[in-house]
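Final paragraph of the annual report: two paired records, presented back to back.
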Amino acid sequence: MKPLSTTKTLNYTLTSSIEAIAEAVEYFLSSLCEVYNIRNDTILFEIRVILNELLLNAVKHGNKMNFLKDVQVVAGFMKGNNIFISVQDDGDGFDYSCIVKEKPDDCSCCEAMKETGRGMLIVKHLSDRMLFNKKGNKILVLKKVF
C-alpha cells in the first residue's frame, strides 16, 4: 500500500480483547469529531460500524484473542473529504479474494460466510474503497465524510 497524503493521523494500539474494542472506537469517533469536525450522525454511525467490525475481526479472527498480540489502528483525513482507517493485526492473515470481488454473492466462498465474514461485507458496503495487504492481515478503508 502506498503512503497516504493526510493532514493529521490518529494512532492507537489495542490489546486483543473484546473489551478494548469499545474504548478504541470511542477514541476514534471523538477524535474525528474534534479534529475534523465531523458532525453528520449517519456518517458517524457508519464509521462506528466500520471500526467495530474491523477491530472485532482483528481481535477475534486475526489475533485469535491472544492477549500477547496487538492491533494497530491508524486513521486520518485525506484530500477530497475522505477519511482512511487502517487496521492491522498480528495474525496470519486471511483470503480476502471473495470480499473484494464485484459481486461477492456469486462467489463460492460465500457459503463459508454463513457464520462469519458478513461483517466484512457490511464494511465493504459502508466504505468507498477497501484495500488489503498481500498477507491479508491489514486493511485500509476509505470513506467520504463530507
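The closing record of the year follows.
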Amino acid sequence: MTAPSDVLRDAFTYHSWATLGLLDAIDQLDRTQLDTSIPGTYGSILETLTHLVDADDRYLQRLVTTEVPPSVDHRLQEVDELRPRVEANDARWSDKLHELEAGSLAARIRGRGDGYPDVDHAEGLLLLQALHHGNDHRTQVCSTLGTLGLEVPDIDVWSFWASRA
C-alpha cells in the first residue's frame, strides 16, 4: 500500500527528474537558442531555469528559517552549473521530507506587510509552492523549445513513472 509520505517523496523525485531531463534536452543548444524567450514566459531558457533552481534554494532555506532569503536570482548559469545544484537540492528535498515524516520540520513564514500574512506550520505551503513553481517554469521552457521548432522533452509524470519501471 502507498503511504501518503511516499506520494510526496515521489512528487519531489519527479520535480528533480523533470528539471534534470530538461537540462539534458537543452545541453546541446546554441547560445541563440538558450537566450530565446517568448511572450508570457519568465525569460530566456537559461534565465528561466536559473530562476527555477534559485527559487528551490530559497524554498529550502525558508523551511529552516523565518528570514526571507533575497529574491534576487544568481547571474545567468549554464547547464553544467545548474545540474549539480539540482542534484544537491534533490538530496536536500529528501532530507526535508525525512524531517517532515519525523515531525521535526517546522517552518514559519513572517508576513511581508504586502498582503501576505504570517503563516505558522508553513511546510505544506512551501512544498506545494516549490512543486507548482517548478512545473510552471518547466512548461514555459518547453513552450519556448516548441516555438523554436525543437524537440520538446517528454518530462511528464507518465514518462517519469515509466522510467522507474
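The chain has a mean pLDDT of 93. This concludes the annual technical report; the extension proposal builds directly on these records.
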